[in-house]
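May I ask for a single protein's sequence together with how it folds?
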Amino acid sequence: MDIPEELRRASEFHGHLCPGLAIGYRASRGAMERMGIARAYDEELICVVENDSCSVDAVQFFTGCTFGKGNLLFEDHGKQVFTFASRQRPGRAVRISLKAGAIPPPGEDVDPAERREKALNQLVSAPLEDLFYVDDIDFELPQRARIHASILCDNCGEPTMETRIVEKDGRRLCIPCSQGRSSASMRLKAPST
């Protein structure tokens, strides 16, 4: 099987070569080519992913969209759908969604290694339009990422982004502590009298 060198490099980042990584590779490359843009240095490219599978590692690797920079957004829909937008092209985006039948379905009588190789070959070699629906859509850009102050949780003492603090019974709590599910031990002690 002829795997592109850049996909092999992505597999080193991801940990293995798999169909999911190839899906993210093809979606990312297809969007970037269609939009005529390069890998993001900062927040100039935004991607909304609708799954948390191997494909998202390829999106991060190839596009430069990351959770840390705030230009990779996750919507948990369980779909191999990726929406790419550029701050240089406000109001428009490219939505790429995997077509049914783009990869062979699992079967009881199919060897998993053989199915994986067949899927990888299909994903790497087939024309983009055979694998994905590619649509230009209207899109509202999210605000640029902001850095917020941290506030100490009154229960666990861990610094928490101010926008995630919950006021409860006159106390400022992180979300896990506000829900009674913090795994952090009580770090703050009452002042001794």
Confidence is low (pLDDT under 50) at residues 189-193.
